[in-house]
Prior knowledge:
Blueprint: H1 4-7, H2 10-13, E1 27-28, H3 40-51, H4 64-73, E2 81-85, H5 88-99, E3 105-110, H6 114-123, E4 126-131, H7 140-150, E5 154-158, H8 170-179, E6 183-187, H9 191-194, E7 208-213, H10 215-219, E8 225-229, H11 231-240, H12 248-259, H13 262-283, E9 289-290, E10 297-301, H14 305-314, E11 317-318, E12 320-321, E13 332-336, H15 340-357
Helix pairs in contact: 4-12, 5-6, 7-8, 14-15
The protein binds pyridoxal-5'-phosphate.
Amino acid sequence: MRKLDDIIRPEVLALRAYHVADADGMVKLDAMENPYGLPRGQVSELAAALGDVSLNRYPDAQATELKRALRERFEISEDYDIVIGNGSDELILLFALLVNRPGATMLGVEPSFVMYRMISTYVGMRYASVDLDADFSLPRERLIEAIEREQPALMFFAYPNNPTGNCYGDDTLDAVLDAAPGIVVVDEAYFPFSQRSFADRLARHPNLVIMRTLSKLGLAGLRLGFAFGDRQLLGELEKLRLPYNVNSLSQRAGLYALEHYAPLAAQNAQIRKDREALQQALAALPGVACYASAANFILLRVANATSVHKQLLEAGILVKNLNGGHALLHNCLRITVGTPEENTALLAALTNAIETST
Ligand SMILES: *Cc1c(COP(=O)(O)O)cnc(C)c1O
């Protein structure tokens, strides 16, 4: 065999593997997880339901029951088709595979969810980007110009955006939809916390797809993402989905959670309430700029993010250090909203870290 360096694509050799921080024993506020588990009563019911799954059989390739439950829970009209992914990450990959003809471009805005760019690399798709404005809003003129220049086959807009937390101005996103020659995916991963959607634009824009996930609302371990929109477009996407991409246990557990949704809905309401309280407390800290968030995380700017991040780690609190990623994220940290107790611990440790690092 030849050396791996001669066989493997150079852009893959140049990648660094996706880094997940070791969270053993830590207060975990780095990955936008819901901090609450299912209530006890539900755990045993769910276990019984999973016990009935026939693991000797392949999963339902169409995930029929799960789709029906998603349709009901999220009020998705029969006018639209649904495609289910092993997390929405997988759907991003499928969209890139769908349109990556020679010369095709994915156009992104930066800073945003890193997987869009990463996946363009995975599939060997050209990627072009436009920086957000300093307040993280969409730069309307530059973006429309870039769309006209690049004629992107695919664009993703996280709404609200990760890691900045804001929803883009609806006017600008509407202008993007009017100008887009290709597929536009509005990624509503944080819909349970923003309660805002572009789904009402689907009727006018057959090139628009809405993507959501069960991860951030409280079921990250199941790996269930879904996209809905135009039947013809999603019919093509469906051809690329591996037949058994979502395993039987995830399908069954997702179905159970969607049909017994009250605890998740209550947890998400609690997180939205605690986000407001945490935002106010963070904004009151000296030396901290706190950005308004419609998601279950908050972006902060401090004087020295790397030092504060390290001190939080030493205090047993894991947050995301975004410093060094993008110029607009200089000295920024992203903090997931935790339980009230976790938020209190974070505030105390952060206050301490800021005092000692200035
Ligand atoms: C977390 C996140 C996702 C990934 O969700 P999964 O369904 O867990 O793969 C997608 N988009 C955005 C913007 C996210 O922040």
